[in-house]
TrEMBL record, chain A:
It comes from Musa acuminata subsp. malaccensis (Wild banana). It is found in: Endomembrane system. Keywords: Golgi apparatus, Membrane, Protein transport, Transport. GO terms for cellular component: AP-4 adaptor complex; endomembrane system. GO terms for molecular function: cargo adaptor activity. Residues 769-789, 829-838 have a biased composition (Basic and acidic residues). This is AP-4 complex subunit epsilon.
UniProtKB/TrEMBL annotation, chain B:
Keywords: Membrane, Protein transport, Transport. Residues 3-143 form the AP complex mu/sigma subunit domain. The lineage of its organism: Eukaryota, Viridiplantae, Streptophyta, Embryophyta, Tracheophyta. It comes from Musa balbisiana (Banana). GO terms for biological process: intracellular protein transport. This is AP complex subunit sigma.
Length: 969, 144
């Protein structure tokens, strides 16, 4: 037995010997393959790296051996271990004359080095040399390396040669040269801006491969500048037509589709060119219609092309017929059982509703299904669709759903996205301010650290300004409900900082406003906030200022403030804080506590946060005081310029100009707008000029004049630094009333009443949808009815979204009238939908145990092709033998190339000749080598042990999926 | 730039082939990224979509026996087409190796890379004809 194993091993090595693979390499691969844990794999690689480090530096390593070392280095890096000691050897290998070695060298270098690595400069020379090579395969290898290694600086070194190669007789070279130029364009568009016409030329290349590759750079170019390529619309349409009519060589067929990947690229390009261009779109209608008609719907690739056609149709100038076809295809996707197709369908629907929002209605149930699917991917895609179709009538349901989902995910990237979408939708479509506040609370509570600070300021503003000019009662009700909710929420652990800031501010302003809560209670709560573990300085500042406000209101009311011990200790702590800001606030509070009530009232007026503060920059209110002082013999104010001995100027305008022209250093900013030439009374010795020369931003003035507005204004300044400016006016218009059209009001209430299905309105609208959802989960048998109701609340009045999407407004009344009957319509549709579901649908993609369904129904595509090439059908064992064919002629590379037929004008004939040669070669070798050797009888015990686990017999054609296992067993 | 990376990983999460197109990642970045997305994809069931959103791009994946093919693509890429691109890659390898298995790719890592090099350049699919993809590799084999 032992002997047999040895023989087997030797045979295995022998069979691979022609590939230059040693036993060492085989053992390495085997042990990596067998490693059962990352730790074990790491150990193997570390050992390998150590041995390579030693051996690769030995003198006179044979070239083939070196190639193997390099591949072993690739393994080490691929598995996450540094192999930088060997980079130089990979670079050296690119100099090798033998193509396999050279190409391996290039491959390793592209895998190892980033494009700004120091070693790149050593390769540029080699690349230049190889680009001039007579062997087109060498040129191709160099061009592939160019795409990976050449950076902006080295582009000029190879650019002329690459441009020359665009007209190389070999199509493979032209194709790669196009892509190299594409790479240069990606890296530095300016470097090739004079060469882009070459892409247009290559679009007309005789070889479909070159043409197909050229679509990639053209796509990028068209993305950047559509208008310069409008003239190509006809060409693209023509090419697409030819492709769809199967004029390309059969080798481009894939699962009986004619060059689908080229079709998809063309459709992407047409979508760009036809966008908003009626004339260009007009050229496309015919071919798009053809594609819809012909497209195979049973295969994945057919659906991929269909999906791309839908995208194209929804992007170009609308055409009723095509939209109909697109909607039909979309509905097939949505009704499919395959999650992949559903996903594509939801995406396609999102594109189509931009043109015609009514399309969504038909698919409401399918969309709800996707929304409730346990698959996260599908769910997110559906949220994206819902986001696109949100309007004031369904915002509550949609945002409710989004928040519910947001709470349950841990992926911060997506959480941020969905939180900002919630905020956006809430700001845009909120039916009531109260709902808005509650929604914001939820967003803050669960994703507060992830939302923009601007959102917090908007929320504070809304609570402060409330309904603005509307009635006072509603305003105070809003505030006290906010206070109530915040006192409740404060019990939760780990609230985000931004949310705590909002809470502190609101409690400080309005905590005691309605007299419901005693001041001591609020102060106590605020002190608790500062004691939390994660409380940062900003929150502390907000909290202490809030305490200050409450104390101030109490004193102003004439009540005595009893200092709670925890509050006192907070003041003590903050007055010795490292933060001067906190210190200042603490001292201010202490000082305020000693003031009498009248003074306190003017320092800190009640509810002054939204008073408009007018800034008197000239400080005219001091005029009397100044006048009096002068009369009493005080020296009048001498402007700074005069004091420093400057020439006497009569007005500040000329003084300013003079100053600008003099060579004094200027310290004030240049760009600040000066409202009007300063009109100052020259006699008055008030420090006006200073105020005028250094215009103080309004926010700072705010904080000087009113403590109450201090916090928001400071924060406002900081957010301005981030480039986001708080709009101090017109914020109200963003939410609620004005956008909440009274006409859609009734329809929304009817729909929500229907959805609640008897659940009484107690908790406000926000929670209703959740109640309903919970209910829907509890009551399994009624699920479909519940879904319909959810659908009704989501899709009701689908056309009413005039605020967001600039879609046809004339549909709005139609949508509204349909509203009432929609739930009924949905119900009547449901049996039909379920029937559809039972229909046979697209095969499961991941079902690998079975032979691929597409290849069982149709003839194996490449078998067909092989039939075309040679009369003898080649069973797969023959393929295997090829592997062994090489080692007999190790150094015959040059001979092989000279043997090649001269590059003919017709690529088809050439490739078929070479393939013929190849197949002859194959057959001739079959006699000498046993096919079964190929899979290498490695009878090592361990390999056999987990053979099952590594049974990777990938057989899309399903010929002999167990070949691997059979050989080992 | 459509394709950001092509990754072959087996069921145990061990990398079998990795090619990045968007940018050159350091070893640590690669390790972290691969670990993250492999965990994400391997946890999914066969009934779920073959697409996963990850950070600001998507991963389209397909499983063949114990080997997962993961392709990271930009958000505007046609997912179904990428799924079929994976299949085309497997079919191409299958034509070359004959009943390709994980071991074939491991023993001939550079060849798998060469095929990918022919198919994808600058993150774009440039060649989809199997004979065009394999011709340079077969010529090279014969010459060596």
């Amino acid at each position: 037995m032992e002997q047999l194993k040895t023989i087997g091993r030797e045979l295995a090595i022998g069979s691979h010997g022609g590939w230059g693979q040693s036993k060492e390499f085989l053992d390495l691969v085997k042990s990596i393959g067998e490693a059962r844990s990352k730790a074990e794999e790491d150990r193997i690689i570390l050992r390998e790296v150590e041995s390579l480090r030693r051996r690769i530096a030995e003198p006179d390593v044979p070239r083939r051996k070196m190639k193997e070392y390099i591949i072993r280095l690739v393994y080490a890096e691929m598995l996450g271990h540094d192999a930088s000691f060997g980079y130089i050897h990979a670079v050296k290998m690119t100099h090798d004359d033998a193509l396999p070695l050279k190409r391996t060298g290039y491959l390793a270098v592209t895998l190892f080095l980033s494009e700004d690595h120091d070693l790149i400069i050593l390769i540029v020379n080699t690349i230049q040399k190889d680009l001039r090579s007579d062997n087109y395969l060498v040129v191709c290898a160099a061009l592939a390396a160019v795409c990976k290694l050449i950076n902006e600086e080295t582009i000029p070194a190879v650019l002329p040669q690459v441009v020359e190669l665009l007209t190389h007789p070999k199509e493979a070279v032209r194709k790669k040269a196009v892509m190299a130029l594409h790479r240069f364009y990606q890296r530095s568009p300016a470097s090739v801006s004079h060469l882009v016409s070459n892409f247009r030329k290559r679009l007309c290349d005789n070889d479909p491969g070159v043409m197909g590759a050229t679509l990639c750079p053209l796509f990028d170019l068209i993305c950047a500048d559509v208008n310069s390529y409008k003239d190509l619309v006809i060409s693209f349409v023509g090419i697409l037509k030819q492709v769809a009519e199967r004029r390309l060589p059969k080798t481009y067929d894939y699962h009986q589709m004619a060059a689908p990947f080229i079709q998809i690229k063309l459709l992407k390009i047409l979508a760009l060119l036809g966008n908003g261009d009626k004339q260009a779109s007009g050229h496309m209608y015919n071919v798009l219609g053809d594609i819809f008609r012909k497209c195979e719907q049973s295969s994945n690739i057919g659906n991929a092309v269909l999906y791309e056609s839908i995208c194209c149709v929804s992007s170009i100038h609308p055409n009723a017929k095509l939209l109909e076809a697109a909607a039909e295809a979309t509905s097939k996707f949505l009704k499919s059982d395959s999650h992949n197709l559903k996903y594509m369908g939801v995406d396609a629907l999102g594109r189509l509703i931009r043109i015609n929002p009514d399309i969504a209605e038909e698919h409401q149930l399918a969309v709800i299904d996707c929304l409730e699917d346990p698959d996260d991917t599908l769910k997110r895609k559906t949220f994206e669709l819902l986001y696109k179709m949100t309007k004031s009538t369904n915002v509550e349901v949609i945002v409710g759903r989004m928040i519910e989902y947001m709470i349950n995910i841990s992926d911060n990237h997506y959480k941020t996205e969905i939180a900002s979408r919630c905020v956006e939708l809430a700001e845009q479509f909120a039916p009531t301010n109260e709902w808005f506040i509650q929604t914001m609370n939820k967003v803050f509570e669960h994703a507060g650290d992830l939302v923009n600070v601007r959102v917090a300021h908007n929320l504070m503003r809304l609570i402060a300004e409330g309904f603005g000019e509307d009635d006072e009662g509603a305003e105070s009700q809003l505030r006290s409900s906010a206070v109530d909710s915040y006192l409740r929420i404060l019990g939760e652990p780990k609230l985000p900082s931004l949310f705590l800031q909002v809470i502190c501010w609101v409690l400080g302003e309005y905590g005691t406003a309605d007299g419901k809560y005693p001041s001591a209670y609020i102060i106590g709560k605020l002190c608790d906030v500062t004691e939390a573990l994660l409380c940062d300085d900003t929150v502390k500042a907000y909290a202490i200022s809030a305490i200050l406000k409450i104390c101030a209101f109490e004193i102003a009311e004439g009540r005595k403030v009893e200092m709670l011990p925890e509050c006192q200790s907070l003041i003590d702590e903050l007055s010795t804080s490292h933060s001067t800001d906190l210190q200042q606030r603490a001292y201010e509070l202490q000082a305020l506590l000693c003031l009498e009530s009248r003074a306190v009232e003017s320092v800190m007026p009640l509810d002054a946060s939204c008073e408009d503060i007018e800034i008197d920059k000239n400080l005219t209110f001091l005029k009397d005081f100044v006048q009096q002082s002068i009369e009493n013999g005080a020296t009048p104010y001498i402007p700074e310029s005069e004091r420093s001995g400057m020439s006497n100027v009569s007005n500040f305008k000329s003084q300013y100009q003079h100053e600008a022209s003099s060579h004094m250093l200027r310290f004030e900013a240049y760009e600040l707008p000066r409202p009007s030439p300063a009109h100052v009374i020259p006699q008055v010795s008030v420090p006006t000029p200073i105020a005028d020369l250094f215009p103080v931003p309004e926010t700072t003035c705010n904080s000087e004049t009113s403590q109450a507005s201090k916090l928001p204004s400071v924060a406002g300044a900081s957010s301005a630094a981030h480039g986001i400016k708080l709009h101090l006016d017109g914020v109200q218009r963003r939410w609620g009333r004005p956008t909440y059209s009274s006409s859609s009001g009734p329809s929304s209430t009817t729909s929500t009443e229907k959805t609640t299905n008897g659940v009484t309105h107690i908790d406000g609208v926000g929670s209703q949808s959740r109640d309903k959802l919970n209910e829907s989960r509890r009551q399994q048998p009624e699920v479909s009815a519940e879904k319909q109701k959810l659908a009704a609340s989501l899709f009701g009045g689908s056309a009413g979204k005039t605020e967001k999407k600039a879609t046809s407004t004339q549909r709005a009344p139609k949508g509204n009238t349909r509203n009432a009957e929609r739930p009924g319509a949905a119900r009547s549709r449901s049996p039909e939908t379920s029937k559809e579901k039972a229909a046979p649908s697209v095969p499961d993609l991941l079902d690998l145990g079975e032979p691929n369904p597409t290849s069982t129904t149709i003839v194996d595509p490449f078998k067909q092709l092989e039939g075309l090439v040679g009369p003898t059908p080649m069973p797969s064992p023959l393929d295997n033998s090829v592997k062994t064919s090489g080692f007999e002629t190790p150094d015959l590379m040059a001979a092989a190339y000279t043997d090649l037929p001269p590059s003919g004008s017709s690529s088809g004939s050439l490739s078929s000749t070479t393939r013929d040669m190849y197949s002859v070669d194959k057959t001739s070798n079959t006699a000498t080598s046993v096919p079964s050797i190929k899979k290498g009888p490695f009878p090592q015990d361990s390999l056999r042990k987990d053979a099952r686990a590594r049974q990777v017999g990938v057989t899309p054609t399903g010929n002999n999926p167990n070949l691997f296992k059979d050989l080992l067993g | 730039m459509g394709i950001r990376f092509v990754l072959l990983v087996n069921k145990q999460g061990q990398t079998r082939l990795a090619q990045y197109y968007a940018e050159h990642l350091t070893l640590d970045e690669r390790r972290a990224l691969e670990g993250e997305i492999v965990r994400k994809c391997l946890a999914r069931t066969d009934q779920q979509c073959s697409f996963v959103e990850h950070r600001n791009y998507k991963i389209v994946y397909r499983r063949y026996a114990s080997l997962f093919f993961l392709v990271g693509v930009d958000n505007d890429e046609n997912e179904l087409a990428i799924l079929e691109f994976i299949h085309l890659f497997v079919e191409t390898m299958d034509r070359h190796f004959g009943n390709v298995c994980e071991l074939d790719i491991m023993f001939h890592l550079e060849k798998a890379h060469f095929m990918l090099e022919e198919m994808v350049m600058n993150g774009c699919i440039v060649e989809t004809s199997k004979s065009n993809i394999l011709m340079p590799i077969q010529l090279m084999d014969k010459a060596s």
